[in-house]
């Protein structure tokens, strides 16, 4: 028998966000490019009205901390077999990764190009092609 999903205090907010996205357009991969544009547009704006602006104002360490927290939450839900929560936490991970990209000046097209470069290459071969870390 499947485990019931746990309820979360922010579930209504996440449901509302989901409805808002559906109203904007279909869920396609370019949603990440649109999210990047929104986060980038929040740089330097009032942190009291934008979570993205607040994270960007707090700096890379805080952004990295939030990304790490969300990644751990994502892994916990995956291991627990909570599919719905895994989807939700995955969205949080992607959002915080995009905030990190904005802070670091990394454009999504750069990441997409790297993925394209790796496409069709065995993961084993790709990893073997990387320079060896002398400290490893």
Jot down its keywords:
136 residues, mainly alpha, Helix Hairpins, 7 helices, 0% strand, globular, disordered N terminus, ATP binding, amino-acid biosynthesis, Phosphoribosyl-ATP pyrophosphatase
Number of strands: 0
Specify the CATH class: Mainly Alpha
- Describe the main β-sheet briefly: none
Q: Tally the helices: what do you get?
A: 7
Shape: globular
Radius of gyration: 17 Å
Q: Strand pairing plus helix content: what structural class?
A: mainly alpha
Judging by the overall fold, what is the CATH architecture?
Answer: Orthogonal Bundle
Fraction of helical residues = 55-70%
**Rounded average pLDDT:** 85
How many domains comprise the coordinates? Answer: 1
Would you identify the regions where 5 or more consecutive residues have pLDDT less than 50?
A: 1-9, 15-19
CATH superfamily: MazG-like
What is the string of helix and strand elements?
A: HHHHHHH
N- to C-terminal separation?
44 Å
CATH topology: Helix Hairpins
Strand content: under 5%
Write the layout of secondary structure elements.
Elements: H1 11-24, H2 31-42, H3 51-58, H4 60-80, H5 83-104, H6 108-118, H7 123-129
Helix pairs in contact: 2-5, 4-5
């Amino acid at each position: 028998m499947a485990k019931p999903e746990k309820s979360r205090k922010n579930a209504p907010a996440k449901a509302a966000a989901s409805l808002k996205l559906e109203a904007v357009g279909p869920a396609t991969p370019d949603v990440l490019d649109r999210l990047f544009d929104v986060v980038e547009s929040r740089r330097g704006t009032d942190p009291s009205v934008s979570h993205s602006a607040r994270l960007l104002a707090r700096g890379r360490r805080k952004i990295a901390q939030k990304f790490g927290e969300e990644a751990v939450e994502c892994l916990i839900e995956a291991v627990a077999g909570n599919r719905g929560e895994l989807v939700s936490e995955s969205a949080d991970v992607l959002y915080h990764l995009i905030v990190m990209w904005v802070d670091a000046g990394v454009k999504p097209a750069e990441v997409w190009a790297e993925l394209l470069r790796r496409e069709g290459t065995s993961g084993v071969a790709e990893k073997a092609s990387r320079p060896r870390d002398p400290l490893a």
